[in-house]
Amino acid sequence: QPRFQTIVGLEIHAQLDIPTKLFSNAKVTGKERPNSVATGALDPFDVAVPGYLPVLSKEAVQAAVLAAGVLQCEVSKLSRFERKHYSYADIPFHYQVTQQRWPLAVNGQVEAIVAANPKAKQKTNQVKCRINRIQLEQDTGKTTQTG
After folding, report:
1. In the 8-state DSSP scheme, what is residue 84?
2. Quick check: is 108 in a domain?
3. Radius of gyration of the chain (CA)
4. Which of 4, 70, 65, 57 is nearest to 26 (CA)?
5. Which residue numbers delimit the Aspartyl/Glutamyl-tRNA(Gln) amidotransferase subunit B/E catalytic domain (predicted)?
6. What is the per-residue pLDDT across 22-73, written as a single tens digit (0 to 9) for each?
7. Cα separation of 57 and 20, whole Å?
8. Which residues contact 83 (CB under 8 A, 6 or more apart)?
9. Which residues, 6 or more positions from 59, have their beta carbon under 8 angstroms from its beta carbon?
10. What range defines the domain where residue 40 resides?
11. Residue 121 lies in a domain
12. pLDDT in tens, 93-109
């Protein structure tokens, strides 16, 4: 019996396939085009202009609830957003809007088939991976340089 057990956890980020950003009506653009006011991909809220408030995307909530169902999660009766404060040069807000403590959904699972030890009789094993939570959070932004 070992004294210690290794447990590996993964934090997986996924971008929702929705037409607007999570907290503004600005369009989501592909990676090939930078975000700009000219392309409709920036809203004053996105660049932290004082006085502009977030507007939660209905499509984002619907997509996240759908993902929660697929991953067999319990959708929370109450979920909240909060600010996670930190500072980097390329984060205009100096905080991230997240659901770290009050997630949209909890306690799910996904089943996967993984390769077993090649010497084992059974070549694959079916495993269940627990899903701790599904949360929506604002991508804090990044600085990119072109040219």
Report:
1. E
2. yes
3. 20
4. 57
5. 7-145
6. 998 888 876 545 555 556 678 888 888 899 989 999 999 999 999 999 999 9
7. 7
8. 95, 96, 97, 98
9. 16, 18, 19, 20
10. 15-55
11. yes
12. 788 889 999 999 999 99
Q: Check whether residue 128 and residue 79 sit in a common domain.
A: yes
- Spell out the long-range contacts of 27-34 with Cβ–Cβ below 8 A and sequence spacing 24 or more: 34/144, 34/146
Structure-token pair, residue 34: 């930078």
Beta strand spans in the chain (E)? 74-75, 82-85, 95-98, 105-115, 124-134
In a domain, 107, yes or no: yes
Which two three-digit tokens encode residue 11?
């934090």
Question: Comparing C-alpha atoms, which of 48, 2, 42, 6 is closest to residue 26?
Answer: 42
Residues belonging to the chain: 147
**31: amino acid identity, one letter:** K
Q: Note the pTM of the prediction, 2 decimals.
A: 0.78
Tokens of 39: 């392309």
Pairing of strands 95-98, 82-85: antiparallel
Token output for 33: 């085009």
Q: Quote the CA–CA distance of 119 and 78 in Å, as a whole number.
A: 48
